[in-house]
Each structure stands twice: as C-alpha cells, then as structure tokens.
Amino acid sequence: MRTCxxxxxxxxxxxxxxxxxxxxxxxxxxxxxxxxxxxxxxxxERLSSQFTVISIDPLGHGDSDRPHDPDAYGxxxxxxxxxxxxxxxxxxxxxxxxxxxxxxxxSLATRAHPERVDLAVLxxxxxxxxxxxxxxxxxxxxxxxxxxxxxxxxxxxxxxLEAFAAANDARAMGAILKARGSARWxxxxxxxxxxxxxxxxxxxxxREDAHRLAFPMAVLPTGGHMETFTxxxxxxxxxxxxxxx
Length: 245
Description:
By secondary structure, the chain is α/β, with parallel strands linked by helices. Helix content is 38%, strand content 19%.
C-alpha cells in the first residue's frame, strides 16, 4: 500500500492511499470518517484483489488538512479535491464510490466531470445533503461536541461517538456543516447505483429521489446508517456486478 498526499487547488494537503492493480475504484468516506474506515470494514481488502483501490481522506478528515473556514468546503472545492487525487494517480476514469457525505462528494464530482467516472455509487447519501440545527453547528465551530452528539445518540452508539470525537477536530466539522452545499442530485450522464439501509430515516425520500432521476436505489437489509456501512456483504453484492477489473 502506498500512502500519498497531493495539494489541492486552494493549497490544502489531501491524503489518500493506493493498493492493488487494475481499474480504479475510488472510495470516499462519510462525515467524521476517514479512509481507514474502508479498510477496517473490509472493502479495501475485497476490492484490491481485482482493482486499484484509492481511499481518500476528504478535507477536514484523517491526515488531510483541517481548516476551520467554511469556504474551504464549498461544492466546487470538494469536486476539485477528488479530481486532484485522480490526476495525481493518472486515473483518467474510475468507479467512484462514496458513503454518506462521501456519496454527496461522489455525486458532485460525477455531475461536474462525467468524463472521469464510469459508475457512481451513492451509499446512504441524502439527495440534498444533511441539515442540522444552527445551534449544534455553531457549538461545533466553537469546539463543543455535546449539542451535536445529543442529536445522534439514538442512532449511533456511545463508543462510536467517542471514536468520532477522538479522531476529529470539532471546529473543522462545524465548518463542513456550515458550508451547507447546494442540493446535489440532478440527472446524471453516467450510470449510477444507490443504496440505503432499511433502518435509515432517509430511505423513503432517497428512493423517491432516485426514482425521479431514473437510477436504481436498493434498500438493503442492513439496518441503520452506520450498520449499512459496516455490514459490507449486501453493498458489495449490489455493486460488484457493475465493476469490471
């Protein structure tokens, strides 16, 4: 495995790693998650037996820079960050797989650069992004996790929340949420497949949006948001037939 960095167009350092050979599968994790989650859950091991797997730390996460300025996380800049990694690895086209906020980033990059994407996989990614009360976002920007975590406790277990707090910079997370990009899902020019867990609150809206835009959206028997990421057999079974080594 190679661990790499590349500079974004706005001079931030972006970290990613590369393992395997073959067609490129680019993995983008969700909010408060870094590239190691793809490894720990088992996606990288499964995919790297047939593909070149590139796992990205989105800006604000993992080993990438963690600016506190919401402007650093605007839609156009998120697209640039994905493209910078592709260019650094001389990847002309890829399978782009994002989970949660990573799915939002994948959809943005796919819409902006369909010539670089053979397939976009949108896992548990709300069509219009996530919205949290201003009070919780303001608290994060001030370095206070508690009001934000209070909103998540019914859906995410305490040990995972503790891991999120230990791994992340609250001010950077607040800046990401403050950026609140535009609605992301419009008609795509390339094949798209989506999935959502059968216990995720957004599942009905996501299915409606996918139907409106004429791409498949599977409801998987995986439960809630985190479980749908960590229970990898159903997502892998859904996506694998679309991938060619």
